[in-house]
Write a structure and sequence with these properties.
alpha/beta, two-stranded parallel ribbon, 324 residues, 13 helices, single chain, disordered N terminus
Amino acid sequence: MSERSPSAEATGSPPVPELARRIATEVGKVIKGKDEAIRTAITTVLARGHLLVEDVPGVGKTTLATALARSLDASVRRIQFTSDMLPTDVTGVSIYDQESRTFRFHPGPIFSNIVVGDEVNRATPKTQSALLEAMQERSVTIEGTTHRLPELFTVVATQNPQDMEGTFPLPEAQRDRFMARIALGYPDDRAEVEMLTSTESGSAHATTVVAGVDEVVAAQDSVARVRLAEDVAAYLVAIVAGTRTHPGIQLGASPRAGLHLAAMARARAATGGRDYVTPDDVALLAATTLTHRIVPHGRFPTMRDEHQAASEIVAELVSTTRLR
C-alpha cells in the first residue's frame, strides 16, 4: 500500500501530517505535557467532529480549546454556559425591524468556525438542546427557516465532572454527538514546573495563527478519502457491537459511534502519513470515541468511577476482538 500522505495534492495545501504538526507545536506552547490530548483534539477537527473536554476545574480545559481555536485563521466564538441561558443565546434570534416591517435574523455565536463552549453542563438541558441540530446537521432552524453553518464547524466544549455543584447531566443524545472525549488530568511535576517558569504557558493569547480555513478544509477532504478496508471495518463494527451485548453495559454505543470511530481512525491514519486505516488506528481510538457514550450497569460514587468502568469495558472489548 502507498505510504504517501493523502493530502499531498496539487492544491498547494500542506500534507496532513505537516499541518497537524504545526498546530500541535503551537498549542503545545501553552499546554505542557499533554501531547496525546492535543493530538486527539487535532484529530477530531480533521475528522469533522466535535470534542468534549471533561475534567476538574483548573487543569487547562478552556485553555486547550481556546489555543486550538486561536491557532487557526478562522472565526472563533466562546460561549460561557450558565444556568440562566436560553437556547436563543446560542443559536440567535429573529428581531422585528420597524423600518422594513420584517423580522431579521441575528445569528448567535454558534455561527462560527470554532465554537468554544465553556462549562457546557452548567446550562439547563433546554439550552444544551440548542446544540443538537447544529452539531449533527451543521445547520440551525429558527422559526421554520434553516440557516447553514460554515463548512469548517467544530464545537470544542468543556465540562466539569457531572457530580460537581451547579451542573446538569448531558443528555445521551448530546453526548453521542461528540466524536471524542478527553480528560486532561493533572500535569506531572516537570510539566507543572515548566508552566510556572514559562512566559507562554497557560495563556491561550500566546498562540499564533499557523493554519487557514482553506488548509483545514482541504485536510478534512483528504481525511475523508483515506481507505477503510472491509476487514478493518468489520473489526471496528465488532468492537462497537460488543458494547451492546456486554453484560456490564446498560446502554451501548450507537451506529453514529461507529461512524465517528471510523472518521477518527481515518484522521489518525492521515496524520501518520498513510492513506489507509489499520486495526491499530481503531484500537487506539476506541476508548476516546466510545466511553462517553456507553452507560455501565451499577451505581458509582463519582462520574470518574463510571468513566473508569466504561474505559475498562472498552479496553476488554478491544483486547478480545480479533481481526477477521
